[in-house]
Amino acid sequence: MNLKEAFQAQNTIVDLMDYIASYLAKEDNVMTITEKHLRSKALAGQQDESVDVSNKSEEMFDVGKLISIWQQLLVEKEKLGQAIGKAKANMAFNLDVAVDINKCRHEFLPYIEKLANRKSSHELQKGEGRGYVFNNEGNQTAYCYDIDRVMTIDYDRNKVRNVVKEVNRTADELSIKIDEALLQTQVDYELKFDLVGKESFILEELMEK
C-alpha cells in the first residue's frame, strides 16, 4: 500500500476503536435490565412476570468479543504506525514538518487576506459631537457638531498582497509535493483486517471470525 492508503487505514482503525469505546460506554449495551412484576404479592392467584426492558443497540455485540477486537486493533495500529514511520524515514523530505508548515500557512492566510482587502476610509458622523459654551448671559449652552471619523491603515497594502500571493503559491507547491509523496511512497505492510465499509459492518465481520 502507499502512504495515503496507510494513513486512511490508520484513521479507520482509530475510528473503529472509538466506535467500540462509545458502544461499551452505554450502560444499556453492557447490561441486561429485567423488571420483575410481582403480581402474586398484590393479588392471590396472579402470576409473576419477568420483562426484559433493556434498550440495547441494534448491533447487539458480544461485549467480550468486542473488547478482544479492540485489543487486536490496538496491535494493528501499533504495527501499521511503525511501518509508516519507516516509510517516512526514507522520504526525501520530512513529511511531518511539511504538513505542519503548510497547516501554519493555511491558518494564517485568512488574517493577511483580510488585511490585504482593508482600505483607508472616513465616515462623517453628522451632529454626533456635543460641546458646551457659555452664552452672553453666562449660562452653559450645549451645541452639536460633526465628527469626521478617519480610519487609516498602518501598513503597505501592496506589500501585504504580495505576501498573500507568496504564501498561497508556496502552500500550493508544497501541497502538490505532499500529495505526490503520499501516492508514491510505499509502506511495507499488509493489513490484517478488511477495513472497507461502515464501522458496524466491519465489526460484524470481525465478530464472525
Q: How would you explain this protein's 3D organization?
A:
With 209 residues, the protein is of the alpha+beta class. The protein has 3 domains: 1-90 and 186-209; 93-118 and 156-184; 122-152, no CATH class. It has 7 helices and 4 strands. The chain has helices spanning 3-25, 27-30, 39-42, 63-89, 95-117, 157-184, 199-208, and strands at 34-37, 49-52, 121-134, 140-151. The strands form 2 sheets. A two-stranded antiparallel sheet has the order 1-2. Strand 3 and strand 4 (140-151) form a beta hairpin. Helix 1 crosses helix 7 and helix 5 runs antiparallel to helix 6.
Helix and strand run: HHEHEHHEEHH
Number of helix segments? 7
The general outline is flat
Our Rg estimate from Cα atoms comes to 34 Å
What share of the residues lie within helices? 55-70%
Indicate the proportion of strand residues.
15-25%
Q: How many separate domains? A: 3
Mean pLDDT: 92
Taking the sheet with the most strands, its summary is: 2 strands, antiparallel
**Distance, first to last CA:** 24 Å
Number of strands: 4
Unreliable stretches: none
The largest sheet has its strands arranged as 1-2
Content-based structural category: alpha+beta
Write the topology of this structure.
Layout: H1 3-25, H2 27-30, E1 34-37, H3 39-42, E2 49-52, H4 63-89, H5 95-117, E3 121-134, E4 140-151, H6 157-184, H7 199-208
Antiparallel strand pairs: 1-2, 3-4
Helix pairs in contact: 1-4, 1-7, 5-6
